[in-house]
Amino acid sequence: MQGSGSRAERIADHIKDEVSQLLSFEVKDPAIGLLTVTHVKMTSDMGLAHVYYTLVGDEVERRKTAKALERATPFVRRRLAETMNMRRAPEVKFHYDENLERQERVETLLRQIASERAEREAREQAEATPDDHAE
Questions:
Q1: Which H/E stretch holds residue 8?
Q2: pLDDT tens, residue by residue, 65-84
């Protein structure tokens, strides 16, 4: 019986779940903000797990969390080694996931373009309509 997805995808999903649990319940560093693990990418040799996350907060909060995650990395890797059935636990590297911010930026720009287009069309229509009071 084969599961869905490649082995790397299954391991990445497992690591995502484990890291989420570890950061939520076992890592006690208060500098780690309210974060969400968005996805994990494994290298082809399964030796490195790139863990992507987002968090609620500003740039300062983001930097504090990044440093706290660096401090927590050995603990996370050790706990992954205990829970995963692999010959060796992968190295773990945390990355802030900027995809959501980019998506928000694109959506904001699209809304701005739509708003400007609607204003321009309304202005052009007002100019094209004969003025009732001009006679």
A1: helix 7-21
A2: 999 999 999 999 999 999 88
